[in-house]
Amino acid sequence: MSILIKNTINQEGYFITKVDISKDLAQLKDEFLQICGEVGTPISHDAKGSIIWDIKARSDDMTDGVVTFSEHNLEADLHTDSQYSEYPEDYFALLTLKKAACGGGISYILKVEDIIKELGETEKGREVLEIIQTTEYPFIVPNVFKMKGETEPEFNFGPILKNGEMRFRVDTIQKALDYNPDFCTEQQKEAFDYLVNLVRTTKYTKKFFLEDGDLIFINNKTLLHGRGSFTDSNRHLLRIRMNKHDKQLKLA
Ligand SMILES: [Fe+2]
Fold this sequence. Notes:
There is one protein chain. By secondary structure, this protein is of the alpha+beta class. The protein has a single domain (2-251), classed as Clavaminate synthase-like (Double-stranded beta-helix). The chain is built from seven helices and 14 strands. A hairpin with a 2-residue loop joins β9 and β10. The site of fe (ii) ion has 4 residues, from loops. Residues 69, 79, 81, 225 line the site of fe (ii) ion.
């Protein structure tokens, strides 16, 4: 099964299967971790070393600063996870324990290869393709990953597209540019705006609902994901991030 999952997420960008979620939560978490360990090497979400992340909407005010999409219930634009980090995780998995009963929370996915294909269709698009691969963009680090008391914003820089893999989230780039417009040239900003518009309007985006018990694996480098807004505060998912098993070997 894990070979099939790995092959599919490497070729198609995602894989969905069904899990029996009627057992108790601790046992379910153990099983979830075991499956993920066969697909990749599970990695922690934070400085405390937590491997399994409970995704529930936070109720406090989130209008100030940048929070992760897993913490709020608003529309989440198509993005890749951890785009601001030195090495974004290769894969992640989401297990739906309780979908949003309000009818919201629809999932969106978009393959990076389809973005490249659409950009390649026009001269302007090909220009944008060149810029996002050969210049560095700023990514602001979300508040949740900063140490307590640390107030200075932190940034990482890198190309949006490299070797067919993407790091992309509109607001972490936009907020970095709002903080320091000199992080990018006008040409880079124009290319970014063009890309954002394409990602938001392309016909290649697929939409579907994750049901209770659905387990989805996502290739975080070759597939963008997003989610519609929801109002049900009982929505509950579990997430595990993974790197490829051979990632260390590749770096050595
Ligand atoms: Fe995400």
